[in-house]
Amino acid sequence: MFITRRLPDPAMAILHEHGTVTVWDQIETPIPREALLRGIADVEGLLCLITDRIDAEVIAAAPRLRAVSIMAVGYDNIDRAALAARGITLTNTPDVLTETTADLAWALLLAAARRVVEGHTLIERGAWGPWHPMQMVGQDIYGRVLGVVGAGRIGQAVLRRGRGFGMRLLYHNRRPNPAIATELGAEYRSLNDLLAESDAVVVTAPLTAETRGMFGATQFALMKPTSIFVNVARGPLVREADLVAALRAGRPWAAGLDVFEHEPIGPDHPLLTLPNVVLTPHIGSASVATRVRMATLAAENLVAVLYGRPTPNVVA
Ligand code: NAP
Question: What would the mean pLDDT of 271-277 be, rounded to a whole number?
Fold first, then answer.
């Protein structure tokens, strides 16, 4: 087995119990391409992360490969067709990160709507003047309309939280899901209608050929000038240059973003010239407990496939 980063101890223990393990023994640095290509030459199992591009070249470099386990729910960095052509099984880590990621979406939504980071920076700069009636006014979230694009596991968890905030709930998937209406009371909308009606738009759809660039100038122009846009899915769903222009023009009113077109972004990124954004460095699933659960599940998935045991996390 080849593991592209050192994982928390419980995950490493599972792997060591079940065979010979080679690890790119770093915590913060992704494995260089050459080291990955060399490392997988003779292995049957690969455990990888979202920072590893697992494309046809990598798969061709691993003639014995039978199983790929990603420690993530999204797998847009993996060439599934190349895996399928070789009959290699791919597993991911859904469910265990759902609530943690939904929490982060809400953290960004509330922070962007109520200017939390701007307020912090104002105090830090020593620029907090006397109280005045319209000082640092933001947008309400309680009682407004929440629209989720990609209402799967995480999207539905975002909607569920919206009920506690007395919100009217809308969602957009490729097709309506009656269970979402029954269980959450959320109404189905076309993407355009959802954008026009929502006060808060949260994106939780996967990155696919269909969703790449789904949010651009046309979509932002449909949003209310008071609305908040949150993306915790994947950066390339959004045309970032269009979002910067839209935020500059004030529609949407503000944005909270955990993911970006090219990660990591640096301090010179145009988004950082705007006061009405709150940015986090792709930390949707980053709680201590959830990251340990994800690593453990990724290890269990890999071992299960290699030893012919059932696992529910095979990507169809
Ligand atoms: P999921 O349960 O598969 O939900 C995805 C939803 O998106 C489904 O309901 C699907 O419904 C919908 N969808 C797919 N294609 C669509 C399209 N073209 N237009 C509109 N909706 C579409 O996945 P999940 O577990 O909630 O995770 C969602 C994504 O979140 C992951 O793929 C990952 O990229 C991202 N994520 C990010 C972080 C982070 O750290 N920021 C953490 C975890 C996950 P239909 O099939 O009915 O269209």
Answer: 98
Asked if 6 and 26 count as a contact pair (C-beta separation under 8 A), the reply is yes
**Backbone torsions φ then ψ of 257, nearest 5 degrees:** -130, 130
Gap from CA of 171 to ligand 1 centroid (Å): 12
Assign domain 98-279 to a CATH class. Answer: alpha beta
CATH fold match for the domains 2-95+287-306 and 98-279:
yes
Q: Please say if 234 is a catalytic residue.
A: yes
Report the alpha-carbon distance of residue 263 to residue 235 in Å, rounded: 8
Residue 263 bears catalytic tag: yes
**Dihedral, CA atoms, 155, 160, 166, 169, nearest 10 degrees?**
40
Cβ 73 under 6 angstroms from ligand 1 = yes
Q: Say what the pLDDT of residue 119 is.
A: 98
Closest CA to 226 of 258, 197, 252, 193: 252
pTM for the predicted model, two decimal places: 0.98
